[in-house]
């Protein structure tokens, strides 16, 4: 099968795409575009986690991607516990299933995520946990919005120390994520002994 050549693009279309890319970048968004056609392929909003945890920011770093993955893991846990993820929160699905709490619009996934969140909260220093939870609120971690939150939660007024506080919280979260099974067992044992 012969490969089809893409149709040549109209110069006016290219000009419009360049203008659209400039407009998006002026609003502070990161825009990825196909260099040949200038078609926009992805748009992202920079936040403090991508700025502070990307490679090249710290000497001797090795696990920046793991720390960022731990933040995404915590965000997924919070969203699942609040019922924002998945379509299994529909009342007709919950009432028709034997899992979760039928009639209360709570699924088993929400219950499990809540239990894991309780373990995470109990395993991290309170100031770091509060910092991460506050940064995971909508639009709180965006560039320009996160520094007042970091100052409030950590007490740091120095901007470099605020970044260090966020990175330290992410490192602690990574440790909790790596040891979550052991921490869940220990919490269950403590609850059984009480």
Task: Write a structural description.
α3 packs across α5 (108-123), α3 (64-82) packs across α8 and α5 (108-123) packs across α9 (180-193). The mean pLDDT is 80. This protein has 194 residues and is mostly helical. It is built from nine helices and two strands. The chain has a two-stranded antiparallel sheet with strand order 1-2. β1 and β2 form a beta hairpin.
Q: Mind sketching the topology for me?
A:
Elements (H helix, E strand, L loop, with lengths): L10 H16 L3 E4 L6 E5 L3 H6 L10 H19 L8 H6 L11 H16 L2 H10 L10 H9 L4 H20 L1 H14 L1
Antiparallel strand pairs: 1-2
Q: What's the count of strands?
A: 2
Order of helices and strands: HEEHHHHHHHH
Tell me the radius of gyration.
22 Å
Strand content: under 5%
Q: pLDDT average, as an integer?
A: 80
SS-derived structural category:
mainly alpha
Strand order of the largest sheet: 1-2
What key phrases describe this protein's structure?
194 residues, mainly alpha, two-stranded antiparallel ribbon, 9 helices, elongated
Q: What's the short story on this structure?
A:
This protein has 194 residues and is mainly alpha-helical. Helix content is 60%, strand content 5%.
């Amino acid at each position: 099968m012969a490969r089809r050549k893409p149709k040549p693009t109209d110069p006016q279309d290219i000009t419009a795409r360049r203008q659209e890319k400039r407009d998006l970048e002026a609003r502070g968004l990161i825009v990825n575009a196909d260099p040949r056609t200038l078609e926009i392929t992805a748009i992202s909003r920079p936040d403090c986690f991508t700025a502070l945890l990307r490679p090249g920011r710290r000497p001797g770093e090795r696990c920046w991607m793991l720390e960022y993955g731990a933040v995404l893991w915590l965000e997924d846990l919070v969203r699942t516990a609040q019922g924002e993820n998945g379509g299994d929160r529909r009342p007709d699905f919950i009432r028709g299933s034997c899992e979760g709490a039928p009639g209360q619009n709570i699924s088993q996934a929400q219950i499990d995520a809540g239990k894991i969140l309780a373990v995470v909260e109990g395993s991290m220093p309170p100031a770091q946990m509060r910092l991460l939870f506050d940064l995971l609120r909508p639009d709180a971690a965006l560039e320009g919005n996160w520094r007042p939150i970091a100052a409030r939660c950590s007490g740091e007024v120095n901007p470099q120390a605020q970044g260090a506080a966020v990175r330290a919280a992410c490192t602690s979260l990574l440790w909790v994520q790596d040891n979550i099974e052991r921490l869940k067992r220990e919490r269950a044992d403590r609850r059984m002994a009480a």
